Amino acid sequence: MARIPKIIVVGFLAVLMGACATFYQKTYQVQSNIASGNFEKADKLLANDTKWSENNHRVLYYMNRGVVSFMLDNYQESIRFLNEADYYVEDYSKQFGWEALSLVSNPMVKPYRPEDFETVMLHFYKALDFLALDDYEGALVEARRINIRLQQINDRYKDHKNKYQRDAFGHNLMGMIYEAAGDYNDAFIAYRNALEIYETDYQELFGLTAPQQLKKDLLRSAQKTGFEDQVRFYEEKFGMEAPESSGDNQGELIVFWLNGMGPVKEEWQITITNFGMSNGVVSLGNPELGLNFAYSSAQLSPREKAAFKDLSFLRVAFPKYRERPLLFSDGYVNINGETISFETAQDINKIAFQSLRDRMVRELGNSLLRLATKRAMEELAARENENLGTIVSIINAMTEKADTRNWQSLPHTVSYTRISLPSGQHTLDLGFSGKQNMNDQISVDIRPGSTSFYTYHTMASTSF
Which residue has better confidence, 286 or 398? Predict the structure, then answer.
């Protein structure tokens, strides 16, 4: 029997080995500079990497450039890069559709389709950019788009929709912006929506309850709008009184704390057992993971049916997230002897894990039969022709790779606090504790009757 030329085998294996490196490993230098707070170096590396901006990872290139520009206080530039990333998200939708990526080809050769929550985070960062520019209207547009985009995404899925369908922090952020703009009626509605989502979706999915500050803001906006019945209702519900209004010479400061770094993707192999064909139905699944899929054997040709009889199991490559644990678990602001704690408002790490779990069920269900058919035909080809079987086996090994790309510069969690201060310049002491302790100072300019927004980052984690 003829043998396959050695050069072909070596070539196949070289490509295979090159495909094994995760996206995390390939972009380590950029990500390590972001994690260490060396944003100037990260920006220079990104600016000089022309290949990244032109290849199938270009949407991630612009996402990272947008975050780094934001860190460098280049807010207009950040908006421009994030708009470019948003364009490629929309372009993917138009050219490739929102159907599940096929598991029978290597998804890394396709343009990266961001995870659904990553698409939403584009609008979060743009909202922060506009707030830094004192553009409340622009910030409101982006805050609204957080939940609009979530709804649009889920409307495209007929089955196995995402459990993360509403964003509590998006509504909370809208409330803050409406209130800063003096629209207390819409602020009250946004805060009330945020409270409802925290109490239902977020508590069940992420174990995250409504921040106490949200409850205070809801009471204050109800009071300023003249909704006395709502004030009484929520005072009784929360067991607290509505906060007193600030004096004429007072201003408000909202500090966002972006803590740690979100998870990174790795590859894992899921073993799928072929339970056989019975009554015209092919049964595949993994009892340990609770995965069960049934397909009509009418979809298979006689040749494929014969091949399935000898197929006992197959392994599916799929991405999984690895958490980067937080270095700091608590934070506070100290001003004039008063200590005010940050409260967690968004757990991006948990949202990422939930979003990927939902996608795994959706994509495995849509693609498993095609992959099983490919494996069965590989075994059949090997029995009929050793050389052909070897080629098919190599090609299958090369194409069965998980897409390990992801937006790695996102924070792990978002926390915030609101402080009422007299107008003028103030220096605030920040403190963070956990596996390590850290202190810092920030300077803010408070205007009477106005709300100022400030974003602080602690990017370090216990592992990179």
Answer: 286
For residue 406, give every residue at least 6 positions away whose Cβ sits within 8 Å of its Cβ, in sequence order, or none. Answer: 23, 24, 60, 115, 118, 262, 263, 264, 265, 319, 321, 352
Give the Å distances, CA to CA, from 287 to 161, 221, 293, 317: 22, 51, 11, 17
This prediction's pTM: 0.86
Is residue 6 over pLDDT 90? no
Cα separation, 210 vs 177, whole angstroms:
18
Contact 303, 380 (CB under 8 A): yes
Amino acid at 266: E
The CATH label, of 3.40.1650.10, 1.10.10.10, 2.40.440.10, 1.25.40.10, for the domain at 6-267+319-366+401-458 is 1.25.40.10
Virtual torsion, Cα 137, 142, 148, 149, nearest 10 deg = 160
3-state secondary structure of 437: coil
Distance of alpha carbon 274 from its chain centroid, rounded? Answer: 33
The pLDDT value recorded for residue 172 is: 98
